[in-house]
Amino acid sequence: MSYQMAEELLKRRGVSLTSIAEIVYILQSAYYADLTEEECLSSVKAVLGKREVQYTLMTGVALDELAEKGLLPQPLQAVLEADESLYGADETLALGITGVYGMIGLTGFGYLDKIKLGIIGKLNDDRGRIHVFLDDLVAGIAAAASARIAHRHEGAKVYPHVTGTE
Questions:
Q1: Domain YutG/PgpA: where (predicted)?
Q2: Per-residue pLDDT tens for 74-98?
Q3: pTM above 0.90?
Q4: Which of 151, 50, 139, 138 shows the shortest CA–CA distance to 104?
Q5: How far is residue 19's CA from residue 96's CA, in Å, rounded to a whole number?
Q6: Cα(47)–Cα(41) distance, rounded to whole angstroms?
Q7: Got the DSSP string for 39-105?
Q8: Domains of the chain: which residue ranges?
Q9: Which CATH number applies to 3-152?
Q10: 38, 81, 114, 135: most buried, per Cβ within 10 A?
Q11: CA pair distance 90, 123, nearest whole angstrom
């Protein structure tokens, strides 16, 4: 799989890279006043450029599409159709994406999984299609891209001098 295939896979499922970058901007703009949406989009693209992210995306989307066609074995088919709240394989798969950028990626994912910001909420609430995996994968991509910005931002490399005793 390639970056272009990953982007096309997302587009086919109704997700633009811009919609993910918008989430990244919301997450990081409070910390970096000079952050641009272009930087956020660039970070999303960098995350999607990683082969393990591409494979994870491919796997999750394939499971969603197979479930839409009714091709999964029972009871898995019923679990995905219901988007069962105790089914955690979707989050587990997405966590593989967030792990690339450490704990900040993990906490960002947890936040996005809870509040369902932007396209994540649209995917989660879409009753015409099955997006059990995709909503979490998009949250994972956004969280990883957000963490990537935090790790790369110049402010992250500056440590204030502490004086006095405690």
A1: 17-150
A2: 999 999 999 999 999 999 999 999 9
A3: yes
A4: 151
A5: 21
A6: 10
A7: HHHHHHHHHHTSHHHHHHHHHHHHHHHHHHTT-SPTTHHHHHHHT-TT--HHHHHHHHHHGGG-HHH
A8: 3-152
A9: 1.10.3760.10
A10: 135
A11: 13
